[in-house]
């Protein structure tokens, strides 16, 4: 059956590979990205700066009709602290908040599908990093790794709070491990040459989940192994706390 698949960050690495795999199956594939020059031929490309709340709202409004799968890949590192137009820390806004917003804004389209699924590609299963509750926007002390880890742990909690709300849409957290993403960073490219998994191998589970979503509301997979939902980084209490904080930020998009 032909599906409609929305992919954020679908012009590079795993996002691009997923788009190509689903196109080969005859799906309608909608890719959200910032660079139209990298658009995958055959997809519907929607240009947007996903670090901007207003841009996420705008691009989501352009997606109509049932959506069978939403695959979330968008992420980009910043060596120095950068603020978005809404005054948010860039990594938190792009890597976490855009994923929250797309899930909420496209929920009616997802729930209209027979077997809807959201696949959040981040670092579930990792125990390093934490939410800096007293400085969520990292105004006092910023670090590239610190920002990435915080957003990764926020994504872990996002799936927990999403699934707790009794929706039909299944939620999958997926940590593929170190993958040849196409990064232009010299050190990462060198490491990837010897240690990274091929992209085609990393996207196989994603392609499969789009075809047949898991039965349970929340699934967490870390490099092929089930992650216990009792893990501290998947704390329901922390998920509820983050959800309340995020709903305050979502007021920027008039979602409350």
Please tell me the overall pLDDT.
Answer: 91
| Helix share bin | 25-40%
Could you give a short account of the major beta sheet? 8 strands, mixed
Shape category:
globular
Distance between the termini: 35 Å
What are the secondary-structure elements, in order, as H or E? EHEEHEHHEHEHHEEH
Can you describe what's shown?
- The chain has about 260 residues and is of the alpha/beta class.
- It has eight helices and eight strands.
- The chain has helices at about 15-25, 55-60, 90-105, 105-110, 145-165, 185-195, 200-210, 235-250, and strands at about 5-10, 30-35, 45, 70, 115-120, 170-175, 220, 225.
- The protein has an eight-stranded mixed beta sheet, with helices on both faces.
- Helix 5 (about 145-165) links the parallel strand 5 (about 115-120) and strand 6.
- The longest helix has 20 residues, at about 145-165.
- The chain is globular.
- The relative contact order is 0.15.
- The model is unreliable at about 180-195 (pLDDT under 50).
Write the layout of secondary structure elements.
Layout lengths: L3 E5 L4 H12 L3 E6 L10 E4 L5 H9 L7 E4 L17 H16 L1 H5 L5 E5 L22 H20 L6 E6 L10 H10 L3 H13 L6 E5 L2 E2 L9 H15 L6
Parallel strand pairs: 1-2, 1-4, 2-3, 4-5, 5-6, 6-7
Antiparallel strand pairs: 7-8
Helix pairs in contact: 1-7, 2-3, 3-5, 5-8
């Amino acid at each position: 059956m032909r599906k409609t698949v929305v992919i954020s960050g679908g012009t590079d690495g795993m996002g691009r590979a997923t788009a190509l795999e689903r196109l080969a199956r005859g799906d309608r594939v909608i890719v959200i990205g910032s660079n139209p020059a990298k658009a995958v031929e055959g997809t519907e490309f929607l240009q947007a700066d996903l670090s901007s709340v207003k841009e996420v709202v705008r691009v989501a409004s352009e997606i109509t009709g049932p959506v069978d799968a939403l695959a979330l890949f968008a992420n980009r590192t910043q060596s120095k602290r950068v603020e978005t137009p809404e005054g948010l820390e860039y990594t938190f806004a792009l890597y976490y908040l855009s994923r929250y917003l797309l899930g909420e804004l496209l929920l009616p389209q997802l729930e209209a599908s027979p077997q809807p699924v959201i696949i959040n590609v981040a670092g579930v299963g990792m125990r390093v990093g934490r939410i800096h509750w007293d400085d969520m926007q990292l105004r006092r002390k910023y670090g590239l790794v610190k920002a990435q880890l915080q957003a990764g742990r926020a994504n872990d909690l996002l799936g927990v709070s999403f699934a707790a709300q009794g929706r039909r849409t299944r939620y999958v957290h997926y940590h593929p491990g170190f993958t040849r993403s196409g990064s232009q960073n010299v050190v990462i490219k060198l490491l990837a040459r010897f240690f990274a998994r091929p992209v085609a191998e990393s996207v196989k589970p994603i392609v499969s989940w789009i075809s047949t979503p898991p039965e349970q509301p929340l699934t967490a997979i870390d490099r092929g192994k089930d992650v216990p939902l009792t893990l501290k980084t998947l704390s329901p209490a922390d998920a509820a706390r983050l959800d309340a904080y995020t709903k305050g930020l979502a007021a920027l998009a008039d979602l409350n």
